[in-house]
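Render this sequence as a predicted structure.
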Amino acid sequence: MHGNLRTAQIRTRGGALSGSRPCILVVEDTRTFTTVLAHRFETELAVDVVTCQTLKDMQRAISESQGRFMLGVVDLNLADSPKGEVLDYSLEVGLPTIVFTGTFDFHMRESLLQKNVLDYVIKDNSGAIDSIVNAVRRVLQNRNIRVLVADGREQEESEAVQMLLAQQFLVVHAGSAPEAMEKLGKYRDIELVLIDDALPGGGVELVKQIRRNASAEDMRIIGFSTRQNPLTCAVFLKAGASDFLYQPFIQEEFQCRVAQSVDTLSQIKKLQAIASRDFLTDTYNRRYFFERGPILVQHCLARHEPCCAVVLDIDHFKKFNDTYGHETGDLVLKTVARKLRQMIDGETHLIARLGGEEFAILLRNMDVREATEYCDLLREEIARTNILFEDEELSVRVSIGVAIISAEETFDNYLHAADQYLYMAKNSGRNRVFSDYSITQLFADRQKAG
């Protein structure tokens, strides 16, 4: 085996062939590029990398990989591949490929695009390494992004579909506006929609329909048309489209416009995520809880599923701040929040810091008895957690109020009811859970004792 290939496989720590991480094959005969690309792919993209310097090494690596390579980054001109034979082999074995080349002209561009490579990057500037890393990053991201193409063609004949598939997107196709709306209802994770002006049922009308339910912050829309009429573009944009293209597509333009839409949506999501989190505890903040909570409640009520509002307050929190300092108080908040995140499924339920030492939780698919018993487990687990301050172990206690959500009211009312039960828990000695169920049980126990 070639020494360079052996070194690369050692670098992967076996992960490339065991399936623990995605694996990329880099075929490049310049050691500097190979070293830098392998390092950046592994550290920035969390993938394993196998490197080769020749076509022969590449053939051996692929034969031994058992289909583990998800992507190839290939230099066209190698010692045993002077005319780009390495690319032909890469495509022959079905390896999605990005070309990294030092020579480029119009005829080469046409040849590369006809061979349906994912992308090409030219080694002619200082930003070439950044460009190839970004190109690989996009392909990795694309594999998790679902795109809807709505045009009047068969899926196999749709230029947009084929170009998106080549870019590794998850593609859904619709042949009419009603079918597109049906697919949007079925695939709730669609992030980008491409719509043909000539779509049966109306391309512009479909844009308007989508925008009634999904803002530009939730979904990007790109219109396209074969008619070279600037008014077509204007009409689409005024209807709510994010961008517009003319056919026949220029591949580089198509890729860049799609990538820009995906990147914009990604940046919006990141900003929304930052805006929705409480910085100190990494739970959701009050604003997000009051935005998202009513939606989740409506879902539960519509499906006749039980749901409970919970308010949790840290007992004697002022003492932590006054006696041990605000840093200790912050540590208490972080500790309680961490326990809540560990014990509560954030995909199903909703946890937020309302402010100060108070947290709110929306428990779905739990009736009041289940929610009360579950919150009692939370209370006990938090009570078992000690915080070390200098040589002293500090214990944390919480009081919890639980209110069942059984009818449609304002969201404030649900929290107010839970807050009333919290008030009862505080007045009854703290470090306990109060709800309609717990009060009923308390009365029943007293009657038995009497």
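Summary. The two ends are 86 Å apart (CA to CA). Confidence is low (pLDDT under 50) at residues 1-19.
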